[in-house]
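input
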Amino acid sequence: MAKKSIASLQTGSKRLTKAVKMVKSPKTGAYTFVESIMAPGAVNDWLNK
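output
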């Protein structure tokens, strides 16, 4: 399961997006959230990894 946050971040001339992904731990079975700030074009590749 993955969820892309709606908020867009702008710093100077670069447009960035914050993406949040749920990752299930194989050891405990609990879910954790992994966050990353990246260019909008790279979000789908990062979520599919």
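quick obs: The helical segments are 43-48.
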